[in-house]
Amino acid sequence: MRPEYRYALMNTQTPHPPVLSMRNISITLGGRKILNSVSLDVERGELKVLIGPSGGGKSTFLQCMNLLVTPDAGSVSIEGASVNPHDKKALCRLRQDVGMIFQDFNLFDHLTAVKNVAIALRRVKGMSREAAEERAMHELGRVGLTDKADLYPAHLSGGQKQRVAIARALAMDPKVILLDEPTSALDPELVGEVLAVIRDLAKSGMTMIMATHQMDFATALASEILFMEQGNIIERGTPGSLLAPDSATRTRDFCTRLADM
Amino acid sequence: MLRSEKRTHRLLRLYIPPDSGWRGTLSALSGFLACITVFCCEKGMPEFFTTLNSLIPQFFDKLLVIWEALPYILGGALVTAATIVGALGLGLILGIPMAVGQIYGPVPVRLFVRLYVWFFRGTPLLVLLFLFYFGLFQFIGLDVSAFVASCLVLGLTSAAYQSQIFRASISALPMGQMKAARALGMSDAQALRNVILPQALRLSIPGWSNEFSILLKDSALAYALGTPEIMARVNFVATRTYTHLPLYIVAAILYFIITLIGLYFLRALERRARIPGYNM
């Protein structure tokens, strides 16, 4: 057998399963088709960027990935294992492996920054208070907020809140992180600090799926850009191919209009 | 305020030499006090009191009645306090799961809670007390004292109202809180216990202290079952001694004091439970 042929065979027989795989996800909410049989595979270390107009289904698609929203049809599998959306235990395990960052942070308002990060470690992973808070301080250090550990969310800026939210997701040792427009609710001067943290994550090889309107960021770091509109992925490709000056893609059209604003 | 101050000054001016300062004022005042003391001694203290006694018929007799009945009535205040502690406690224990059930529960649970609330909010408390104590408890063979019965009925009623207080607070929290808790891998029970309820209960304290003060005053209805609480004891003494007015005033003051004490502690609790920098 020729060496290259053997290599190809190995590749098909013991496939390296995608970290997260969505198959034919469909969902109808309030009589409106939000997602129309959308599929997506995410390999380890990739940064997929979802872009597109509001109401295009990006946010719903992201929430289907950790089954915060149960799709009407389709399946979600993590590392090749399909997840039954009605098995509560499997759901909790999936969500531990898939971290999520929200547009409006959703920090727990009654807990300090460090306790926000520690609470899931204690209650979900069953760590002791000391161990959980030590881990939480380590994660806060990663996002540069060691000195804000004992402040309540109401005393943090938007950028700091989002960084705490990232630390909270990271503390669970997720295999993938979903980011739902993490900078859209921020004042313009605070966007940079959050993007810097996400950039570091991407460079350290974290697998991420991110919905965003930050095109410069997406162009620089995305392994693939997916353009979503009316519940479909209508274009996908590397930033270079989709945004090349001579490409007549819907993505490029959308981005020039974003830049015009 | 200003006018009365002026008047005092005009009166005092007769006694106080100008520019005498506060020492002068003090000596003038002590002069007044001396005058009153001399007057009282000459006329005699008893005469002063007999005048008062004739002004308000049997003033001292009634004072004596109140004085002698006070330990008995204060015992009633303890019963009232125990009743509302029991009733509020029962309402709390039932109200929280009912609120949670009405928001997150399956349809049968929601329906049950709605029926329950509809029944207890729609029926007068007095009717409920009689219905349970003389009717239902007898019917199911539950032999309880009037005190326990009024605790139970007040508690069941309070649970209906409290469940709506907690339901409002839970609904007032942003949806994202539950989402974030689920996204971290918490089960719904864990999310409720660690994220939703700690915040919702804080929001509930003002509404809950309202419920406390209303329930305290509703507890006077337990008198109808023969629970030996404030109202029953005051009424007992009043009808026996014909001292209605003063004794009912005493009852009113007692309820007023218990309300104030309770609200003071609830205010303190609200302050302690406040989340720094968080105003909702």
Summary keywords:
heterodimer; A: about 260 residues; alpha/beta; Rossmann fold; 6-stranded mixed β-sheet; 10 helices; B: about 280 residues; mainly alpha; MetI-like fold; 2 domains; 11 helices; about 0% strand
Give the H and E element order of chain A. HEEEHEEHEHHHEHEHEEHH
Number of strands of chain A: 10
Largest sheet of chain B: none
**Domains of chain B, number:** 2
Instruction: Please give the alpha-carbon distance between the first and last residues of chain B.
Output: 39 Å
Topology:
The complex is a heterodimer of chains A (261) and B (280).
Chain A: H1 3-13, E1 20-29, E2 32-42, E3 47-51, H2 58-65, E4 73-78, E5 81-82, H3 88-97, E6 98-101, H4 113-123, H5 129-142, H6 158-170, E7 176-180, H7 188-203, E8 207-211, H8 215-221, E9 224-229, E10 232-237, H9 239-243, H10 250-260
Parallel strand pairs in A: 3-8, 3-9, 6-7, 7-8
Antiparallel strand pairs in A: 1-2, 1-4, 4-5, 9-10
Helix pairs in contact in A: 4-5, 4-6, 5-6, 6-7
Chain B: H1 2-13, H2 21-43, H3 45-55, H4 59-104, H5 107-122, H6 125-139, H7 146-172, H8 175-183, H9 188-218, H10 230-241, H11 244-273
Helix pairs in contact in B: 4-5, 4-7, 4-9, 4-10, 4-11, 5-7, 6-7, 7-9, 8-9, 9-11, 10-11
Explain the overall architecture.
The complex is a heterodimer of chains A (261) and B (280). Chain A is an alpha/beta fold. Chain A has a domain at 17-107 and 176-260: P-loop containing nucleotide triphosphate hydrolases (Rossmann fold, 3-Layer(aba) Sandwich). In chain A, 41% of the residues lie in helices and 23% in strands. Chain A contains 10 helices and 10 strands. In chain A, helix 7 links the parallel strand 7 and strand 8 (207-211). Chain A is globular. The N and C termini of chain A lie far apart (58 Å). Residues 5-11 of chain A have low confidence and may be disordered. Chain B has 280 residues and is mainly α. Chain B has helices spanning 2-13, 21-43, 45-55, 59-104, 107-122, 125-139, 146-172, 175-183, 188-218, 230-241, 244-273. Chain B is flat. Classes of the chains: A alpha/beta (261), B mainly alpha (280). The A-B interface holds A 66, 68, 88, 92-93, 95-96, 98-100, 102, 104-110, 119-120, 123-124, 152-155, 165, 168-169, 172 and B 174, 176-177, 179-187, 190, 194-195, 198-199, 202, 275-278.
